[in-house]
Amino acid sequence: MGEPVKVERVDGVAKLILNRPEAFNALNLEMAEALAGITLSLAKDDAVSALVFTGAGKAFFAGGDLKWMAGFPKGPAAALHELAGRFHVAIQEIRRMKKPVIAAINGVAAGAGFSLALACDFRVMARSATMKQAYTSAGLSIDGGGTFTLPRLVGLARALEIAAFDKTISAEKALEWGLVTKVVEDQQVVEEAMTMAGELAKISLHSFGWCKQLLTDSFDSSLETHLERERRGISNCAGHPDGREGIKAFLEKRKPNFGKTSKS
After folding, report:
1. Strand-strand pairing, 13-18 and 5-10
2. What are the boundaries of each domain within the chain?
3. What is the reported pLDDT for 172?
4. What's the whole-number mean pLDDT along residues 168-192?
5. Based on the number of CB atoms within 10 Å of its own CB, is 144 exposed (0-12), middle (13-18) or buried (19 or more)?
6. Calpha distance 80→73 (Å, rounded)
7. pLDDT at residue number 72
8. What is the pLDDT of the chain when averaged over all its residues?
9. How far apart are CA 12 and CA 23, in angstroms?
10. 169-170: strand order across its sheet
């Protein structure tokens, strides 16, 4: 058996490949621990400006490994408690890191794979791929941040519909509902995600990080509180080397050249 999560680096972009193709990249404890450790490490790595998640073989990420759970010595409930704890470390890091994170959905994204895809900032989906929350059909509630990200993407009513009926969602329907950013031909999905990541790697990550956090926080604060957060954010950005470079470039009518400092 190889590494449960492989990492390839290309021009400042880290491609994370979920690597259990024999199990459609289903999540067990080893893979969850690898995901947590790798995302924490890459978030702190100044040589990495963006992340891309994809899956080895035919699937993106088919959710939790039910066979592994059934064989867990303390039973499925204890297995899921352990598994979610590790998996949620990765989800938290994806949501709070300043770097853009893209899901290249090359095949089925179900259960934990559905939640991981939604936790990413952008999603590029292969035309033949499908999404399915899958939890409720197995008598489970949704984890992996799915109940946090799903209503923010599609609204509460649609999120509840997805939770209740658990229909398989095609790429076209996912795009229509706002679950994904772009749908491309199957053979182009990873290439398109890497191209997008390369473009995002050139922006100010300091600015992106503030915008990402402000947009997330906007659902949980009053207008007055949020306006103050925005004031702190824009003044902080203006005082950062990226902000100074951006303003200077605008005045000089040229493209800004954001440096390594934007990754801190």
Report:
1. antiparallel
2. 5-200, 205-263
3. 98
4. 98
5. buried
6. 12
7. 86
8. 94
9. 30
10. 109-110, 130-132, 169-170
Q: Which CATH class is domain 5-200?
A: alpha beta
The set of catalytic residues is 88, 143
User: What is the reported pLDDT for 1?
Assistant: 58
Task: Work out whether strand 5-10 and strand 182-184 pair parallel, antiparallel, or are unpaired.
Answer: unpaired
Lowest mean pLDDT among 76-85, 147-156, 159-168: 76-85
Return the pLDDT at 75.
85
The phi, psi pair for 11, rounded to 5°, reads 50, 50
CATH homologous superfamily for the domain 205-263: Lyase 2-enoyl-coa Hydratase, Chain  A, domain 2 (1.10.12.10)
Q: What pLDDT score was predicted for residue 264?
A: 39
Transcribe 14-40 into DSSP letters.
EEEEE--GGGTT-B-HHHHHHHHHHHH
Residue 9: strand pairing partners: 14
Contact criterion met (CB below 8 Å) for 47 and 99: no
CA–CA gap between residue 205 and residue 49 (Å, rounded): 8
